[in-house]
Amino acid sequence: MMAVKYLHAHPKALQEIRVCHRHEEHLAIINFKSPEDPIDRNEYKSMSLTRVVIYETLRLATVVNGVLRRTTDDMEINGICAQNSCTTDISPGQKYHYSHSNDVLINVYVVLRDQTNYDPIQYMEPLNFDSWRWKSLESHHYFTMFGGGSSLCPGNELVVVQVSMFLHYFLTKYR
Ligand code: HEM
């Protein structure tokens, strides 16, 4: 739903994903086959613009609030204490006291809209829908919408397959 909303609001992205003269992503696929032929793996893999549109949609419209991790060792994150025996308030002025807590919530929503420019390559104008920012950034360590590490979401490719298939038929059969 959100991919359709963003494509509607960004006609240039819609034009590129549907029929760009250089890429001809979705219309090129149907040009070489009859309507009843299913999409094969190579055709799915050729949908590179669709893929980055889906990533940018997930970045701005993620439903994931955060992922939880538990520290196994004493450690410090940006000067904040996150250790088993820690008795310091995690942030001055907050009423919460994190004593004996070793749970860390990684706020994925905020990381994906980070405006502090820790990494200016990825988050230039982070509130703008710009699918091109994901070109070659898929393996970037800030790619957090599916979590990370050993608990990385195993459904991540399935999501992209399903939304790509929906967008393919939606964009080639309707205007
Ligand atoms: C847009 C859709 C989805 C998003 C944004 C998403 C996101 C996430 C995130 C952030 C995590 C936590 C990873 C972590 O703790 O590091 C997760 C875990 C998981 N996801 Fe997804 N997910 C999606 C769809 C799916 C689908 C379609 C499936 C299955 C068919 C799935 C199965 C799982 C499972 C089993 C885990 C737990 C993995 C573990 O703890 O080892 N997810 N997902």
Automatic annotation (TrEMBL):
Keyword Disulfide bond: no
Organism from which the protein derives: Colocasia esculenta (Wild taro)
Tree of life domain: Eukaryota
Cofactor: heme
InterPro entries from the UniProt entry: Cyt_P450, Cyt_P450_E_grp-IV, Cyt_P450_sf
Protein name: Cytochrome P450
Any GO MF annotation of the entry: monooxygenase activity
Family matches, as Pfam families: p450
Key words, A-Z: Heme, Iron, Metal-binding
Binding sites annotated in the UniProt record for heme: 153
Any one biological process term the GO annotation gives: brassinosteroid biosynthetic process
